[in-house]
Amino acid sequence: MGLSATRSRILLVVPSLIFVGVLILYPILDGFRLSLTDTSLMMPSVSFVGLRNFISLLHDDIFWLSLGHSSLLTAAAVILQYLLGLGLAIALNQRVPGIGFFRSLAMVTWVIPIAATVVLFKWMATPDYGFFNILLTKLGLASYTRYWFGSITWAMPMIILMHVWRNVPFYAIALLAAMKSIPKELYEAAEVDGAGSLQRFWFITLPAIRYTSVIMIVLHVIFTFNNFDFVYLSTGGGPVRATEVLPTYVYQQSWMYYALGYSASIGVIMMFLLIIFTIASLYYIEGRERS
């Protein structure tokens, strides 16, 4: 009876294993295999080149530029998203009339498709009738008007702003749910002991939402570091590669220069960087829980 039950459990798991293997494991392994070749869409023959693609990356200035931009974009966007999302979660956690409506309203920017978000921001950034330039003109700063996505200085901040504008509500709702799970008795006991609002937030709220915070940060680091849509649809990596990030560089190598092997090596590097970050984050959670 026990053996039959074990076989039944195994049979139930097999479809999931096949799904994971076909849709996740195989593409990863094939991508790694591709990175060790000189595969090109322009050449039918394929040769094994070992680590030559990875060695070439060490001397590729555009790769290092893209890596720096990806790191800057990810760090700035995720930090701002978390801090603003935490502030919004605290505001939505207050007991005021109509708060349920505002909680629903807060999710609007997150449910808007990325393409629509980019179109909206590009419209607001236009020189003649864009919201940003009209606002500057009204404030007497007409000399500062420009096409913001066409500026070497301001194109990357605009992309960061789009990430923040879209994802802050998701942070807020996730952190709000974590705050709602904190027993009220903890706050009441702390208040009886004379703890102020800041102390209750620092010693009760923050530790209680730590696990959710780390998970949200890890997920959005992965999303932002791999994100292609925002940059490609808004600037395409320009102007003058001022917003070139690793995903757009992978796209260029694959579909503009047809260097599939070389682009696969960039993808492998991105994957390993994110794996290292994820493992470090999980060790942080485990270490904090043990302490």
Protein model, in words:
It is globular, with a radius of gyration of 24 Å. The chain starts with a helix and ends with a helix. It is mostly helical and 291 residues long. 25% of the residues are buried. The chain has a domain at 59-114 and 148-290: Orthogonal Bundle (MetI-like fold). The longest helix is centred in the first third of the chain and has 34 residues, at 2-35. It has helices at residues 2-35, 52-58, 61-92, 99-105, 108-111, 114-124, 131-138, 155-180, 184-192, 197-208, 210-226, 229-234, 246-255, 260-290. Helix 3 (61-92) packs across helix 8 (155-180).
Features:
mainly alpha; globular; 0% strand; MetI-like fold; single chain; 291 residues; 14 helices; 74% helix
Explain briefly what this protein structure is.
The chain has 14 helices and no strands.
Q: Residue-averaged pLDDT, rounded?
A: 89
Number of DSSP strand runs? 0
Q: For the terminal residues, how far apart are their CA atoms?
A: 43 Å
The value of Rg in angstroms is 24 Å
CATH architecture of the domain at 59-114 and 148-290: Orthogonal Bundle
CATH topology (level 3) name of the domain at 59-114 and 148-290: MetI-like fold
In the CATH scheme, the class of the domain at 59-114 and 148-290 would be Mainly Alpha
User: What are the segments in which pLDDT stays under 50 over at least 5 consecutive residues?
Assistant: none
CATH homologous group name of the domain at 59-114 and 148-290: MetI-like
N-to-C SSE string, H for helix and E for strand: HHHHHHHHHHHHHH
Helix count, DSSP H or I runs of 4 or more residues: 14
> Structural class of the secondary elements?
mainly alpha
Spatial shape: globular
Main pleated-sheet profile:
none
The share of residues in extended strands comes to under 5%
How helix-rich are the residues, as a percent range? Answer: over 70%
